[in-house]
Design a protein that fits this description.
33% of the residues lie in helices and 23% in strands. It is α/β, with parallel strands linked by helices and 604 residues long. The strands form 5 sheets. The chain has an 8-stranded antiparallel β-sheet with strand order 3-2-4-1-10-9-11-15. The structure holds fructose -6-phosphate.
Length: 604
């Protein structure tokens, strides 16, 4: 949530910052700004600040931006938490002397108290943000040593931060982290840092992931890390493996479409090296025999994959599984102990609620496992053991390939536990799992057919998605995808629940999508379709083949290949991703950056 980028080196900094912001814009896009250390006509250093409400293009198209010259600066793209999106509330924020500028991700919980004290001391505030207190606190404590001033500031604040500060008098950038990720990139004669490694890829692959309660002093070509008590830390340098190409659109109109189309490869990468001679190869540092209960914690789409995980893990391993919204789990004093395994599922590995739920479970002695996409993310670092998705960077705000790879990873995990508990694996399931990438290529062929169907629903106000068993959470996911990018109100239900309420909504204005692929409950789903048709509802069904019986009652069909029940959610969700995508695109909406949303939710 919010993107930050900073650079100190020899190059003209503005293009570097703007390029970085472009890579980070998916994290927040209600306003953007930069602060650069410049030299005025009297040869004095000063901070030049420019910020604008709206998309990054508003900032980058300002005439003044071409006049800003310097080799050190910080920049930010915002997703508002405190204070409406406008020019003043945009970051960076400066102090009263205009010598200090800061950018901040996260939330300063005690900002009102701090602001009151600072105002009494004579500081004048311009914005309604919580972040501005940081600029004034650094000003208050600054006596020539920026690092010390930042440290004293951070001793006073409560909440979360990924912070960068510069001062006109210093040639260094101070960054600090508690709860909001920051990655530092190292170059020969420059140092760069950002809230997300993707923004560094054009410059370097040698990175250091700053840890919570650490700060770093960035100078031209050097980086020193210490904790808030001043103790020096080692520079643990890692190499980023993602290519720049992987994070670009590759000719697709949107990242979301590119990421939907990438699913065969993403799943292939997720499976790579993890199945050999019919056996599951995972390196999990867990005593599986001692696990009496599994609790899955996650948010949004990742929570939906957790729900499917419950069906699959329970059926395969007979270990009871609970699935909790991470935001609820963290505050309800959950019944968790050393005999429990907590699985945190997260694409970003940075979601604040999921991280807090994980920490809560660890405090209670539970074993922990992460199913995470972003390598080196906070959750990935804090779990006892993990399974990386290897889906590659997911930039579109609506999660697609992360969902299908999460389901793949959950299947691998279930099979692995079963195997390690001494049970025989179902060979057909293992074989079919290996063939999944090629089955998905076939499903992607439904793209044009779904686009045609989408044209009929761009004016819809509501939508119902119904499915059963492992495909009930797929209905939830279809509804979430549609509402988040097309702004059509949508609900997902287990099909049999329709008669307990939602059926009252059915009329000719209510499209209902059924996941009606072959399963044990197919007959019951057919009855539900008839019930909707009898009430004049518009029906769409995902089916496996021409099926005269179902087709009598549906207006539109989407045919997908038949597969085993355990794998069917991965196949069936793809037409739903396309449906949401095409409805939103045909409505002319900004698919990759839907309103009010951000890719990585690092605030509560
Ligand atoms: C929906 C979506 C969100 C995320 C949720 C959790 O398309 O992307 O619902 O799934 O914010 O994010 P992660 O998986 O990064 O923890």
């Amino acid at each position: 949530m919010c993107g930050i980028i900073c650079y100190v080196g020899k190059e003209d900094v503005v293009p570097i910052l703007l390029n970085g912001l472009q890579m980070l814009e998916y994290r927040g896009y209600d306003s953007a700004g930069i602060a650069v250390r410049t030299t005025n006509e009297n040869n004095c250093n000063e901070i030049t600040l420019l910020k604008k409400k709206g998309r990054l293009s508003e900032l980058s198209s300002q005439k003044e931006i071409t006049e800003i010259k310097g080799t050190m600066g910080i920049a930010h793209t915002r997703w508002a938490t405190h204070g409406e999106p406008n020019d003043v509330n945009a970051h960076p924020h400066a102090d009263c002397t205009n010598k200090i500028a800061i950018i901040h991700n996260g939330i300063i919980e005690n900002y009102s108290a701090l602001k009151k004290i600072l105002e009494e001391e004579g500081h004048t505030f311009c914005s309604q943000t919580d972040s501005e207190v940081l600029a004034h606190l650094v000003e208050k404590f600054y006596t020539g040593d920026l690092k010390e001033a930042v440290k004293k500031t951070l001793n006073l604040v409560e909440g979360t931060f990924g912070l960068a500060a510069i001062c006109a008098d210093n040639d260094e950038i101070i960054i600090a982290r508690r709860g909001s990720p920051i990655v530092i990139g190292l170059g020969k004669d420059f140092t760069i840092a950002a809230s997300d490694a993707t923004a560094l890829l054009n410059h370097t692959r040698r990175v250091i992931y700053l840890q919570d309660d650490e700060l770093a002093i960035l100078k031209e070509g050097s980086c020193t890390i210490e904790d808030f008590a001043g103790e020096k830390k080692d520079n643990n340098i890692e190499e980023i493996k993602w290519s720049v190409e992987q994070v670009e659109k590759k000719g697709y109109k949107h990242f979301m479409l590119k990421e939907i189309m990438e699913q065969p490869l993403a799943i292939e990468n997720c499976l790579r090296g993890r199945i050999k001679n019919g056996k599951i190869k995972l390196t999990l540092n867990l005593d599986l025999k001692s696990i009496k209960k599994i609790t899955i914690v996650a948010c949004g789409t990742s929570w939906h994959s957790g729900l499917i995980g419950k069906y699959i893990i329970e059926a395969m391993t007979k270990i009871p599984v609970e699935v909790d919204y991470a935001s609820e789990f963290r505050y309800r004093d959950p019944l968790v102990n050393e005999d429990n395994l907590i699985i945190a599922i997260s694409q970003s590995g940075e979601t604040a609620d999921t991280l807090a739920a994980l920490r809560e479970a660890k405090k209670k002695g539970a074993k922990t496992l992460g199913i995470i996409n972003v390598v080196g993310s906070t959750i990935a670092r804090e779990v006892d053991s993990g399974i990386y998705l290897h889906a590659g960077p997911e930039i579109g705000v609506a999660s697609t390939k992360a969902f299908t790879t999460q389901l793949t990873a959950l299947l691998l995990f279930s099979l692995y536990v079963k195997q390690e508990l001494g049970e025989e694996l179902d060979d057909e399931l293992v074989e079919t799992l290996l063939e999944l990438p090629s089955s998905i290529k076939t499903v992607l062929d439904c793209r044009d057919a779904v686009k045609e169907i989408a044209k009929h629903f761009i004016a819809s106000k509501n939508f119902l998605f119904l499915g059963r068993d492992v495909n009930f959470p797929v209905a939830l996911e279809g509804a979430l995808k549609l509402k988040e990018i097309s702004y059509i109100h949508a609900e997902g239900y287990p099909a049999a629940e329709m008669k307990h309420g939602p059926i009252a909504l059915i009329d000719s204005e209510m499209p209902v999508l059924f996941i009606a692929t072959k399963c044990l409950l197919s007959d019951k789903i057919l009855s539900n379709i008839q019930e909707v048709k009898a009430r004049g509802g518009k029906t769409i069904a995902i089916i496996n083949e021409e099926d005269n019986e179902i087709e009598r009652f549906i207006d539109y069909k989407i045919i997908v290949p038949h597969t085993l029940k355990e794998l069917s959610p991965i196949i069936n969700v793809i037409p739903l991703q396309f449906l949401a995508y095409f409805v939103a695109d045909l409505k002319g909406l900004d698919v990759d950056k839907p309103r009010n949303l951000a890719k990585s939710v690092t605030v509560e």
